[in-house]
């Protein structure tokens, strides 16, 4: 289990600014969590805090009971926490099979990279020898990136807005990919997303706004809240804690 205990993140500037405020979260094994909420709410910062890109100003992060707060990105990666970038890097001269072999090289279990490609919806014979460069579409690149995350056999994988920059058709496939890998792999998956299709995959949904957790519950409860809120024209009673419109709560 990955646990964040009273985690805050402050950045220094002309005036100091608290990006994350006293976050308490538990991520259990084999579950999918979707983190959603308005832009600037702190979602990407939360992902970076989990990954070790940022270290918290205060609070503690534990993985399976071990304090990992002081560990950096490389040390956390070694412990099985992985991060998929919002805009995946592409390397000239590197083939898909090289990328996947590199990713699988630290995995003690033997991984068949053709199976991996299949699991993310790509046909191995068409993709193994493709260059990891701009010739791959956004959707293809996203799926290859998911395959690299799977190859590493991570305990926790964080995806920051995997839907960004891909078309509707590829997106549909991407959602299916997450659903399928959830069944097959043991990884705890944390997806930052605004997409209802992705939210539907979640065991639990976390809503972040203003650097805080404004709601967290089982998928159906949160989704029902979001729907009610969307339907309410500020006259009906809304689900408390979701959507946060003061007028609607009256
Ligand atoms: N390194 C940083 N320095 C200063 N402000 C930052 C930094 N990273 C993020 N922020 C600010 O923190 C807030 C939360 O950002 P972010 O976590 O990217 O939100 P989200 O992913 O929910 O859109 C935003 O106001 C953003 O401008
Ligand atoms: Mg973000």
Description of the structure:
The protein is α/β, with parallel strands linked by helices and 250 residues long. It has one domain (2-249): Rossmann fold (3-Layer(aba) Sandwich), CATH 3.40.50.300. It is 35% helix and 24% strand. It has 10 helices and 10 strands. The protein has helices spanning 43-51, 73-78, 96-104, 113-119, 124-127, 138-151, 168-184, 196-199, 219-231, 246-249; strands at 2-11, 17-27, 32-36, 58-63, 66-67, 81-84, 156-160, 188-192, 204-209, 212-218. The strands form 2 sheets. Strands 6-7-8-3-9-10 form a 6-stranded mixed β-sheet, sandwiched between helices. The chain has a 4-stranded antiparallel β-sheet with strand order 2-1-4-5, with helices on one face. A hairpin with a 2-residue loop joins β9 (204-209) and β10. α3 (96-104) packs parallel to α6, α4 (113-119) crosses α6 (138-151) and α6 (138-151) packs parallel to α7. The longest helix is centred in the last third of the chain and has 17 residues, at 168-184. The radius of gyration is 19 Å and the shape is globular. Residues 232-240 have low confidence and may be disordered. Bound molecules: adenosine-5'-diphosphate and magnesium ion. Residues 43-44, 160 line the site of magnesium ion (MG).
